[in-house]
Amino acid sequence: MAQLKVLVVDDASFVRDLVKRTIRNSFPSLTVEEAINGKKAQSLMTRVAYDLILCDWEMPEMSGLELLRWARQQDAYKKTPFVMVTSRGDRGHVMEAVQEGVTDYLGKPFSPEQMSAKIIKALGKKLRGAPSSAPGGVQDAFKQSAALLTSAPVRAATKAVNGLNDSAALLTGGNAGGADASVNVSTKTIAEVRFANSALKAVIKAISLTEVKVIARREQLFPGILDSAVIDIELDENNVARLNGYVHQLQAVDKRVDSDFVSIVIRFVDEDPQKLEHLSKFIARFK
Q: 13-26 and 137-150 are packed helices; what angle lies between their axes, rounded to 10 degrees?
């Protein structure tokens, strides 16, 4: 039996690497290829028959939705599993993707277990019949994902940030990306940071085009270094920017062992020009 082929489409190299690593670790029998946007993916899909498409939504040149729409018009891809992997999880976008024929949806950030579960669900019997190139291979992946597929999804643990305006420590400290931004705490500087199995409310301390530094109360559930993250920043009353990144640094705000606040530096991985434009406008107002 021929090896199953998976195409990973995302403009962020960090996200592509995470998806590829997850597939290679859990499904060694699968062949994985990648594309940096919808246009590149479209070119590959005209030459190679893929068994599964894992695709981001927001990308330059051609979005994931446009690629999905094109794929469903091709005889070779009318029924091919197409999983949208994106931070755009609001009901309107989900319904739009469903109407265009999306197979499934995976929100960013995601854990390797969540990604594995979506792959198992999408490929089903095809995956069970695939040749294994490593001991345990696909069968081990099924065992590891069994609990995830039969239980309720993990709920994001989001807690309100209280007393931020009363803490002098919140408004002092280092820079993120060399951009010093000591500002008064207000609703405009509060952002939500989402991880695979948790979320937290934080205050933006400094921000640049490459990274953001936020401060959060220690009582919240924190991620690990290099964990994927999505930070939601309110641009205005009607628009929220969703920026993909990973945790670059974690440290206490002060030297006390019982420090009340933790500083998190998140490096951005998005290369979408529109997102960068929104980020630039926010930075201009922030400073």
A: 110
Highest mean pLDDT among 33-47, 84-98, 112-126, 150-164: 33-47
pLDDT single digits (tens) 215-263? 988 877 777 888 888 988 877 767 777 888 888 888 888 877 777 888 8
Task: For residue 109, say if its preceding peptide bond is cis, omega within 30 degrees of 0.
Answer: yes
Instruction: Please tell me the distance from the alpha carbon of residue 197 to that of residue 222, in angstroms, as a whole number.
Output: 10
Select from 69, 220, 243, 85 the least CA-distant residue to 157: 220
Q: CA 201, 276, 91, 54 torsion: positive or negative?
A: negative
112 belongs to a structural domain: yes
Q: What is the pLDDT of residues 47-81, one digit of tens each?
A: 999 999 999 998 888 999 999 999 999 999 999 99
> Helix, strand or coil for residue 154?
coil
Q: Which of 149, 174, 196 is the last residue of a domain?
A: 149
Rounded Cα distance, 201 and 3, in Å = 44
Q: Is residue 267 part of a domain?
A: yes
- Kindly state whether residues 230 and 175 are assigned to the same domain: yes
Q: How many whole angstroms separate alpha carbon 34 and alpha carbon 203?
A: 35
Q: Which residues contact 144 (CB under 8 A, 6 or more apart)?
A: 26, 113, 116
